[in-house]
Design goal:
single chain, alpha+beta, Alpha-Beta Plaits, 4-stranded antiparallel β-sheet, 3 helices, globular
């Protein structure tokens, strides 16, 4: 399972507020037919799932602002694809929490 961090930024919109675009992306993620999990943060969204599914989701996320009037979109993507053992967002957080303090 892979974990992706994505930030989608529509450029040249009529307002500096992007919350409407973010709400659209959130709805897309909630309605995604692919078996994904996601967590929105104030600056980006973290999504986990099979890599081929994530690429499909990422393409829809990138295209969404164009469908709502944006003429330019900048999308940043980071992929963590660990194949030596099963990894998830929760497992990564648990691993950090479980480390003894020095």
């Amino acid at each position: 399972m892979a974990i992706v961090e994505v930030t989608v930024i529509p450029i040249g919109t009529a307002t500096t507020s992007l919350s409407g675009y973010v709400a659209d992306l959130h709805r897309l993620l909630e309605q995604a037919p692919e078996p994904i999990q996601f967590q929105m943060t104030p600056m980006s969204t973290i999504i986990e799932g099979e890599l081929q599914d994530l690429f499909q989701v990422l393409q829809r996320l990138h295209e969404a602002p164009f469908q709502h009037g944006a003429q330019r979109v900048s999308t940043s993507i980071k992929i963590d694809d660990r194949r030596d053992k099963n990894a998830s967002m929760e497992q990564k957080l648990r691993s950090v929490r479980d480390k003894p303090q020095s």
